[in-house]
Design a protein that fits this description.
Shape: elongated
Number of helices: 11
Helix content: 55-70%
Distance between the termini: 26 Å
Largest sheet: none
Radius of gyration: 19 Å
């Protein structure tokens, strides 16, 4: 199969996956709680190697003590770490949050920039975080290559043996319609938690993708 026909086949598969996941998870959305763009930046940094549910609890205490960008920018890193340590990697996360809020205050007037390249300049913000903000806050096309996305994209057959987040992202941009991209990634998270699980054998018997999924890496 040549490259063009392979990409066409993957586009067809992607459209099928999108439609079925849309039917299965019509209301899928970001599971991090936030009511301001800067809070999403904080939460997504804390979510590294931590559950969204725990992050949602921890940030409540953080915002009680430091309710805005300026307060967090002026906060002592130790004070931030004391609150966020239940999320793991407390020291590095506290440093990044502090530096990020300082940059928002000093460079961007306390506002989160709405350009991808500007978001990447913020401490602790990588492509995954920047895409999440672009999609959820600014309503732009976005592909968030978290662990669910990478695992399911490979398992379904949208990519093949690609584990590096940026490479998965670039591959998916070629086959996922931009207007579907952000919601598609949220639905992959829902599907990865509910059906196509990582820690147990996937529940293929109840999966809406069972007849079109390549089942790469699935025994039996």
């Amino acid at each position: 199969m040549n490259a063009n026909s392979e990409e066409t086949e993957k586009k067809t598969l992607a459209l099928g996956v999108i439609e079925r996941l849309k039917a299965a998870y019509p209301d899928a959305d970001c599971t991090l709680d936030y009511d301001d763009a800067w809070k999403l930046l904080v939460s997504v940094r804390l979510a590294a190697q931590c559950t969204d549910a725990r992050v949602n609890v921890v940030v409540q205490k953080l915002y009680e003590k430091f309710p805005d960008v300026n307060a967090l920018a002026e906060a002592d890193v130790d004070a931030i770490e004391e609150i966020v340590h239940p999320c793991g990697l407390g020291r590095s996360k506290a440093r990044d949050i502090s530096a990020c809020m300082k940059m928002l205050r000093d460079v961007y007037g306390g506002k989160v920039p709405d350009r991808f390249d500007e978001l990447l300049k913020l401490p602790g913000v990588g492509r995954k975080s920047a895409n999440l903000v672009m999609g959820d806050v600014f309503g732009q096309p976005a592909i968030v290559t978290d662990t669910h996305c990478i695992r399911l994209a490979n398992r379904i057959g949208l990519v093949e043996n690609v584990k590096e987040p940026k490479k998965v992202e670039m591959a998916l941009w070629k086959i996922i319609p931009p207007e579907e991209s952000n919601a598609f990634c949220h639905r992959l998270v829902e599907h990865g938690r509910a059906v196509c699980t990582a820690r147990t054998k996937p529940h293929c018997g109840i999966c809406p993708l069972a007849d079109i999924c390549k089942k790469n890496g699935v025994d039996g």
